[in-house]
Amino acid sequence: MLNKYPLWKTLMVALVVALGALYAAPNLYGEDPAVQVSGLRGVEASAETLATIKSTLQQENIEFANIELENGQVLTRFKNTEAQLKARDVLDDALGRQYSIALNLTPQTPEWLAAIGGTPMKLGLDLSGGVSFLMEVNMSEAINKAKVGMVGDFRGDLINEKIRYQTVKEVNDDIVVIFRKVEDLEAAQSLFKKNYRDLVLAADEDTLTLTAKMTDEKLKEIREYALQQNITIIRNRVNELGVAEPLVQRQGKKHIVIELPGVQDTAKAKEILNATATIEFRLVDTEGDLNQALNGRVPANAILLRDKNGQPTLLKKRVMLTGDHITDAKSGFDEYSRPQVNISLDSAGGSKMSNGTKSNVGKPMATVFIEYKPTDKRDGEGNIIFEKVEEIISVATIQSRLGKTFRITGASSPAEAHNLALLLRAGALIAPITIVEERTVGPTLGAENVKLGFQAIVLGFALVFIFMIIYYKAFGVVANFALGANLVLIVGIMSLIPGATLTLPGMAGIVLTVGMAVDANVLIFERIREEIREGKTIQQAIHQGYESAFSTIIDANITTLIAALILFAVGTGPVKGFAVTLSIGIITSMFTSVVGSRTIVNAIWGGKRLKKLSI
């Protein structure tokens, strides 16, 4: 029988549209202004923190809709932004610098819907408001760190191969190794040629020196690695602290663009992003005199550092390992139920740690947290000069020779172990970064953009709806149902895709897909009219109209989809936002315009003897 779908196919189409409507539903519930409190380094938000927040708000007569503790963060919802802003100021004074207090917009999605993965679409900076930063990576510091690492590698290789040397040091942009014998110089040159193919080596037998210089390719590799690693770590750091899901993009040779949609508190966002920290592992200098060091007489091979409580410790100047080799860090408990941090290293880090600890079992090792704070000064190359601040965050005894995995003990509490793991897991920046440009889009402007974009979509739909009903009558109503289902599916899919963000250009993409979706139905309906004029029966005309127009619709949509995918691949920012909604809209429009509209047509007119058709 012509134009008659089996029941299962009709139910399948209805199920797809229903699922789309289900996952699009969270966008109808709106958002609550909220204040999010997260513990900073060494501190964790707890039930006690929640009680403090609750009592503080009650004392100040600030009404809140809900307050809850989840994943080490306290989230307080408010009924209006006025109460939210007042609460932020009050809590900032009450909790002090141990906590990060950020303004957020929290979805009002019901628990049952959130439990099945229902979340509203993420809105871009231009729609939700938020902050955008342009950050600069200090490439000079990245190269300096690479040279320091090479000095340590050279020493380790020479010691392992039992090649005697006098000294290894940096001289300008080169690394110079001085030997006592020509035989040692030649052996070292042969060893380094094998191990370091990206270095240019020059030996001088008269002065017994071996000079190593990095090639242009090696310098380019260091810069690329520093930029990519910093991008990854910035994303991890913001995600770990729960402020927002950042949009992080590379710009040029040494800049990173960071967009934090929905973040209203610029100061807190800057505080988190400016935490340009690294981690280093050093041996404690147990032979040096701490009292003399405190009086200013620090041994040449040692440095004096303090922990967060101001307790001084004398450390070896040589760095055993830097944090950029850490691949994972998790807090837990040892066999005696004491808090510990389990650390995993990459292969190069595991080798360095093994070599560094094999002769130091039983000695204390310190984990040093290093933060680079930007100053107002710049060097000769235009790079920002940073002030280096170092702090000991953990001292633990080396129990055995360490490798790719080891543990740090000595944390005073599970909270301290958890926060140490967070810092280690968030990563160590290869080079310090600083904010060189800041842009803020207020929530009011973002709301205005949403309003205008929504009006454009509604107006576009309304004009198309009216035209289709006037021109195609009952079949026009079918096309309008398909258009509505198309919009629902676009919103549902955008809400489901992790990382998909709706921007103002994305709204333009949705409006464009409206025209493209109705164009498919116009092709089908015009072909049906043509078949009827040629004397075909109603059922034959409907069947032939859908069958004949299908190939034309597929060809037209595939070529547009290819163009959208190219835009997504090579475009950035607004172009990507447009390409995402256009690509999704093309796929859903092919489904709703062809499969969806035909399902409705078959259900109403299919398999019946008709003499007239309302088209």
UniProtKB/TrEMBL annotation:
Sorted UniProt keywords: Cell membrane, Membrane, Protein transport, Translocation, Transmembrane, Transmembrane helix, Transport
Start and end residues of each SecD export protein N-terminal TM domain: 2-103
Database matches in SUPFAM superfamilies: Multidrug efflux transporter AcrB transmembrane domain
Residue ranges of every copy of the SecDF P1 head subdomain domain listed in the record: 307-431
Pfam family for this entry, one: SecD_1st
Subcellular location: Cell membrane
Membrane-related topology note: Multi-pass membrane protein
UniProt domain Protein export membrane protein SecD/SecF C-terminal: residue ranges: 434-601
Transmembrane segments: 452-471, 478-497, 503-525, 546-570, 582-605
UniProt key word rRNA-binding: no
Domain of life: Bacteria
Family matches, as InterPro entries: SecD, SecD-TM, SecD/SecF_arch_bac, SecD/SecF_CS, SecD_1st, SecD_SecF_C, SecD_SecF_C_bact, SecDF_P1_head
Coiled-coil intervals: none
Protein translocase subunit SecDF P1 domain ranges (all copies): 227-285
Protein family: Belongs to the SecD/SecF family. SecD subfamily.
Subunit text: Forms a complex with SecF. Part of the essential Sec protein translocation apparatus which comprises SecA, SecYEG and auxiliary proteins SecDF-YajC and YidC.
Role played: Part of the Sec protein translocase complex. Interacts with the SecYEG preprotein conducting channel. SecDF uses the proton motive force (PMF) to complete protein translocation after the ATP-dependent function of SecA.
Protein's name in the database: Protein translocase subunit SecD
Organism: Colwellia asteriadis
Lineage, top ranks: Bacteria, Pseudomonadati, Pseudomonadota, Gammaproteobacteria, Alteromonadales
